[in-house]
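Bug report (template v2)

What were you trying to do?
Predict the complex of my protein with pyridoxal-5'-phosphate.

What happened?
Run completed; filing so the output is reviewed.

Input:
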Amino acid sequence: MRAYKSKVVSPIRLPDREERVAALERAGYNVFELDSADVYVDLLTDSGTGTMSESQWAAMMRGDEAYAGSESFDRLQDAVSEVMGFERIVPAHQGRGAENVLYGALVSEGDYVPNNTHFDTTRAHVANNGAEPVDCPLDGALGDESGGDADERRFPGDLDVAKVRALADEVGSERIPAVVVTLTNNSLAGQPVGVENVREAAAVADDLDATFVVDACRFAENAYLVRERDPEYADCSVAEIAREQLSHADAVVMSGKKDGLVNVGGFVGIRDDPALDDLYERARERGILFEGFTTYGGMAGRDVEAMAVGLREAVEERYVADRVGQVQRLGDLLADRDVPVVRPTGGHAVYVRADEFLPDIPREQFPGQALACELYREGGVRAVELGSFAFPDADRPELVRLALPRRTYGADHLDHVAETFDAVAERRDAGEISGLEIVDEPGMPELRHFSAHLRPVETEEAEAA
Ligand SMILES: Cc1ncc(COP(=O)(O)O)c(C=O)c1O
């Protein structure tokens, strides 16, 4: 049952097939280059693409645009303290701004930073400060190595704490200034992290004398999944679980564009503990240097207000059940059609195993990107490839992510996505889908999926015709 009705609408249209084929060609088979007006259901990302509530819009009118001492900042501070348990905050314009503030204050040249899996901007900020980002996920977390099936693990997103200890033995604990856990694990199919794992990670950080940081951008969705998967929390509210899970962290880094339920904004939260005073002071300074004064940090006062309200709404039961339920429903619709999806689904997106769905397309012809293009061609659906095209050097599964914007689409949109998969499967069975090759690749290889252009690989039959 939906928890919302619409009050403001945004018109969308499904361009006809000929228009979609032309748009795809113009975009160089790169969905980032499509105009949003040409997209019918946009599942490119859940970040900053959601719909705000009437309470958020009403709060925006209250925005205090004072440069210093803004009342809106006080209201955000109260919300972060009540919902997440952090009394001191340094606001930032979005998550990566907060990462720049925090990691610049925490890490130095030659350090190592373990994380369950670094999100790409986190990796970049750790590396930008001269440190080495080290991923420490569970082996075979998605069931594609020796570690078993993802379905058998309650929390495939967990940090492998033994790997963190092994890293400390190898490089020396003094070179590990921070241990990080990302909730949910976006780079690992959006899988949740257990409360017990966060407790263990905090204990390791304590042993290593390192700061324990949680990337909390999907903290409410993670808490909902904890309740579903861990009987110990079956009777707790999402708000209680979120508070408990975050209570083990020294600091949080937050992109408000996810569970802050806003289109822009973020912050660093630091516990009110004398041992963290230095870190807080350094983060404040960096905030002023890179983001803006301490009481607005790159946001308008009205955006600060919207995030203060959004954080409270994110842990409301009806909101989060509706949200995660939609993701699960899309996962079920696809699984019922034998589309290979990572199960159980995480909190914000459904991840499709493109190499299994398009088994005839070899890895070097980017099966994930081919699938993303087909979804657009057949149904005007935009998804994102997170496999060999986005991560050229990494040995990662060929995934395509369908990320659901919050409170934005309804059941009929999800049905349309599922039916689009039927149309793609028909073309696949008729042998009509080809792989892709890169035509030009401007800029850094790590960022090529944003800007590279591709074309379909000519098959022998096509060449002969
Ligand atoms: C886990 C994680 N951390 C950090 C970020 C960066 O946040 P932003 O896009 O607001 O800069 C993202 C964005 O998708 C994310 O998923």
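What did the reviewer find?
The chain has two domains: 17-39+317-464, 54-314. The CA atoms of residues 87 and 229 lie 30 Å apart.
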